[in-house]
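Fig. S4 source data, part A: sequence.
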Amino acid sequence: MAKIAFLFPGQGSQHAGMGKDIYENNPGAKQRIDSVDDTLGHPLSGLMLNGPDEQLKRTENAQPSLLTVSTALFEMLKENGLKPDYTAGHSLGEYAALVAAGVIPFSDAVKLVRQRGLFMEEAVPSGVGAMAAVMGVEREELQAITDSVSESGDVVQLANLNAPGQIVISGAKEGVEKAGELAKEKGAKRVIPLQVSGPFHSKLMQPAQDKLESVLSPVAFHQAEVPVVANVNAKEETDPEVLKQQLVDQVTSPVYWEDTIRRLLELDVTTFVEAGPGNVLSGLVRRVQRRGVNVYAVQDIESMEKALEKIKKEES
């Protein structure tokens, strides 16, 4: 039987004005967005709705903002009768996936991602780390390149395995640059430095991982109502303690996103609904599986209504 997966985007999808449409037209979404300021003791809602982008893209602001909008959209989809068989989120998006699966309440999740963002900002001094997207080199070859550069003393590793021939590397600035040059020599079509504040999903994030583990430890996690496919191993999971540990491991581990989509396809998912700003994950699904799947990016009321109408037709 055909199944539905809800996908939640990660950092980089944020933009000033995200959520404004649902804030102005849906009471539940307005309540959720307004609640963030009290929960965090920080005026985030105005930044989310009005910018400026420069402040919004700071990790400690971007992460709770994206979680808020993504879960507000999820609640609206649920109100309209659409429920997932599986959830998954890209990096930060995994927290939204856990909220959607009933593992942690939104209020706990938004506090956690705010702290996660701060820990990630603090982990590595500015200018020491870097990330770059490498296009057109397969993972085995790129893995060999990053291993070679790391062995020579400049840490670099695969960080986001997004889709065939689209992989992000992360680590020390010099390591990322060397690996990028070697990738070009091996035939990479492009190597694009990313405008990020740290070397996320690399071993250099160990200080952030240690701090996050201590913050996560006392938080109550619940059995998942639907399986969550985790970043760290692309396997479905419902056990609360395992899901908690995977959030800890995720900070320094690669995001196996291509593998996540392939696993969802193996689980008979034919409809993917991306709930959150932008359409990055929808594009990645199409790069992994071009035919035989339905993909919807839901980021406002118009896109939601179109998605719901088409999904209803598919089911009838």
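Fig. S4 source data, part B ends here. The mean pLDDT is 96.
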